[in-house]
Give the backbone structure.
Amino acid sequence: MRNTAGELGRNQGAERNDSARTLLTLAVRDYGDGDEGFTAGIDEQLDVVAEWWSSPVAAAGFHQIPAPTLTGRAHVEDFLRTHRVREMTGEALVLFITGHGVAGSRTHFLELPDSERGRHLNTSVRTTDLITAALDSHAENVLVIVNTCYAGKISGEIDDLIEDIRAERRNSCQLDVLVTCGHDRPVQVRRFSTLLRGAFERLRTTAGITTPHLRVIDLMSEFERGLSPADRKKHRLHRVVDGSGVLAPTPCIPNPGYRRVREATGADGRHRSTPAGDYWLDRATGRTQDQDPGWYFRGREDLNRSIAAFLSPARARGVLLVTGSAGSGKSAVLARAVVLSDPAFRDDPLCKTALDLSASDTVPATGSITGAVLARHRGAAQLAHDILVALGETPRRVRSTEDPVVEAVQQILAALRDREEAVTLVIDGLDEADERQRIIEDVLAPLNEFCAPRLEQVPVPRPDGGPFAAPEPGLRLLIGVRSSRPLSEPSVELAEEEQGPNEALKAVFPTAEEQRTDDEASEKDIAEYLHALICEGGGHRESAEEAAGLVAPVVWPSFIDARIAGEQLRSAEDPAAVARQPEWQRMLNNGTEGLLKRDLVLVEADGLPSEVALALLRASAFAGGAGIPWSTIWPQMARVMLGETLPDWDEMITKLLKSRLNGYLAHDHEDDRRVYRPAHETLAEALRDAGTDWLDRGGAA
């Protein structure tokens, strides 16, 4: 995980810090012509730039050098000399230039209050002189933004000047220059601040970009979204110098929407999970909202004890299948093991609470899990790639003539053979993978040589005649996979899609052990979970136990239904009274469908129409991969689901994520975007069913 702390400590004239990031602003505010609107517009620009470049990111922030008072050319030259701009070092340098611009025959000038008409060569400043002072400095990455009239005029000049920067710097550093208008267009002084503020807000909320820094194209596209189609050609940002590494984020642009993501690690403290640690924490805690500070996981002592024993130092090899019917808590059990065994989480107050609640023999040893991956909607090549990352390996580049699955598996096997310590991998959601059969046969089956128990430990002689080497270490696989509950009548056959993955895994790993999450004892576990969710989450100590006792037998063996029901009850004044209501009991008997129907009615009190909320949820259910990104995609898909246009879809999504319906969603990261999907695959399947009448208000009232 990148360090989130750090001090810049660059002072005027002081020794430079090679990791420094600096923001310079050259702004001409007052031309002495009494135009207070212009001065106010410049101040608005400086305010939004200052706010943006003070946004918290994953590394040190920007040191902002205050904009000087500029009246004459000498003031500009003094500023460049005092701050040694041409000699500046550091990781990132951003220069923002704003004021009146003047286009000469072949040159663009920044006009100053003391500039004389017709004498711009001596009384104004060539804008390219300011730009090249930054570009030809020693800073590793440079971004210059010019917001003046006719700024596009710079393009021809800078093309010639950029060639005078040494080739080594041009090729190794990212140097970018943006201008706000074409060569023949003026700018409106307040337009830039309005558009930049809009881009800032979208990147902070709807864009969902998860990297700590942005690409230049990200800034340009979000800026352009604030323009009408007619104005885009006139007022969009133009890139007149295109730095190397175009597709990579630049340290020059902090992402105002960046959220620090908790990462799971291995015993060595390195990143070892896909997806990020927030996924495992959400599942392990049993919380209904991602900002909920509670730990509600309860019960499952025997199951947790078996997993802890499987992960103990006494076991070096083996396969343990954690299986059960849909929604029965498989992911929660696996996630608890991932989180409580992880050094990065165990010191967290939330996990300390969990440790205090748990018997010592139900807690896996610290560092006992090497890596954890999620198979949901992953193909064979993608999952093999994730396993390599979990092992701390760098996947090799695959040629077009090679099979990426075969190549990745060979690299996995080589990595396992080179290990001097036991390796433990957690694979969750295998039944939800896109290529289950190939994953089982081509990715997992070859691992059996490391999982199968050895009949005897035979020392291996060393070629050099030295002491015998210990046998090669083994592999422990902890796999979560759905299966139907065993039927009391053996003559009744299970559906193939229900028994397939679990039975196929047993065929590949004949010595695999199995633990179920949906046996009769789990009803008591559901009651304990509900009691914690209602009592600790809502403070209803008097009626929480009665409510949990009424709900658990109805929802068993589904923890997902228990979670949704608990979320509804914890917000009630008297949970037991609600749970006793015949109407609520009928709704509860319909499982997830009945619970969601009720919430779709109640959410209208939050200003979110039921049909709009349903369209948004259904759009997330139809999204492929890890989920649906907000940006422009979620609104477009929801509009198709709804069949009509609303004035502000972003506002509707904001209300959805703040409402009780947020508990029906999980979030993840894909392609550097925050994405959303239904909290469980069974819920996604229900939402994709076109035959369900979700807005049956009469039945859910």
About this structure: Residues 71 and 481 are 71 Å apart (CA to CA). The chain is about 40% helix and 10% strand.
